[in-house]
# Entry
Amino acid sequence: MTPADADAVAALHAASWRHAYRGVFTDHYLDHEADAERRTAWQARLNSPTPPADWGIVAEDPAGRLLGFAWVLPDHDPTWGDYIDNLHVAPDAKGGGIGRRLMQAVAERLQRDGSTRPLYLWVLDANTAARAFYERLGAEVTDPQLSDPLGGRQHPVWRCVWRQPATLLAHA
Ligand SMILES: CC(C)(COP(=O)(O)OP(=O)(O)OC[C@H]1O[C@@H](n2cnc3c(N)ncnc32)[C@H](O)[C@@H]1OP(=O)(O)O)[C@@H](O)C(=O)NCCC(=O)NCCS
# Structure
C-alpha cells in the first residue's frame, strides 16, 4: 500500500463500514462523516513523514480496481504478537476468497520478515459474519473486552488469535 492508495482505501473502508456496521455506528456518522473522516485518517497514515514499521496490502482486480485491503502493525503486543488493524473486502466482492487471500498474504509476509509471533485482531461482537470468517480460518476467539471509542462509543469486541499463523497458509 502506498500514499497513492489513500483515497481508494478510504472510500472502500467507509463503504464497508456502511455495509457491515449499520446499527453499530450511528447512521449520521456512516452517511455523513465516515467518507471524509476515513480520507483524512488514511491520508495521514500513508503520508506520515517518518515511515513506521506498519504496512498495508491491497487486493486489486486486473483493471486495478481496489477489492480489499489489510493494515498490519508488526510486534504490536508482547503477548499477542503481530496485529491486523483493518481487514476489508469491497461489499460486492465479499465471499470470493479475497479476505482469505489477504489474511494469507499477511501471514506470509510476516513469516518472510522473520516473525515467529502470534497474529491477532479485534472483531466486534455484533459482527457475526466476520467472526464466522475468522473461525473458518482457524482463529481462537477469546478475551472479550470493550473497544476503544469507535463511531462515538465503545463496543463489545473479541480477540481473534492465531498462535501459529503458518496454519493460515494451509487453508485452501
Ligand atoms: C470479513 C471479510 C474480510 C471476509 O472476506 P471475504 O472475502 O468475504 O471472505 P472469503 O470469501 O475469503 O471467505 C473465506 C472463508 O470464510 C468463510 N466465510 C466468509 N464469510 C462467512 C460468513 N459470513 N459466515 C460463515 N463463513 C464465512 C467462507 O465461506 C470461506 O470458507 P471456505 O474457505 O470454506 O470456502 C469480508 O466479508 C468483509 O470485508 N466484511 C466487512 C468488513 C468486516 O467485517 N471486516 C472485518 C473487520 S474485523
Summary: Strands lie at 55-60, 66-77, 81-89, 119-124, 140-146, 156-162. The chain has a mean pLDDT of 94.
